[in-house]
Give the backbone structure.
Amino acid sequence: MNKNHVKIIAATVFALFAFAANSVLCRLALGENAIDAASFTSVRLLSGIIILLALLSLTNKVNKPKTKSKSTGSWLAASMLFIYALAFSFGYISLDTGTGALILFGAVQITMILTNVISGNKLYLTEWFGLTIAFSGFVYLIIPSLTTPSLTGFIMMSISGIAWALYTLLGRKSKDPLGDTTYNFVRTCPFVIALIIFGFNGGHITSMGFILAVLSGAIASGIGYFVWYIALAGLSVTQAAVLQLFVPIIAAIGGVVFTSELITLRLVESSALVLGGILTVILGRYYFVQLAAKKAV
């Protein structure tokens, strides 16, 4: 195993734990009423901006003048990033850590699959089968408790997942991931200012809530997203998609350890349906693509 492989593995493991940490940190902050959802989102994004600008400045100094960043991000990507972060926070007001992560990453994968279909790519039979299983898992998860809080949480986290999927798709052609990520965060500033103004009267922040939001923004989001781009350089699309399915599992374990949540049988069963269905879609397409490539040769 060479140094590059070790680098990719380390980056992948760190990124996956960072994604799960966002769920745990948000649930810890909101579940303990240490901070309101709007303030958590604002502090998270602002701390992400600070750490990313510092990383970008350091990178530009090291690489100067050879590969200095010229990226400016985009308003569309910044809008998706803000919607993802805001809906994520409000979703976790009424969802357990593992449940929220399952809905989030399930929505991400399904959105990317459906976007692929809308773009004109046909789905194989195995993909339709997997998609059906995944959707049934979502239905099975929420049917027993269609109360207003859980349904609202489900809708908000689904919106968050859709926004993150679109943000990911917008960034697939990025030639400067750190620069684009940094300036996408920076471009959320007007939205954050508006959120602070409109949410000022209902806002409350404790020192612990502030610390949790900073950790989520600076470490789990800012550095986490940057490290994920490093990992993507050595992963195939299929590998990246499959690996992300581990995030809800890590988040659920984190919820048990840090927030004393219980892993219910229904969550385990619905997780098996959702993640198993998505895995069927991913591996099914990979198999048929490889088969077609062999026939072409």
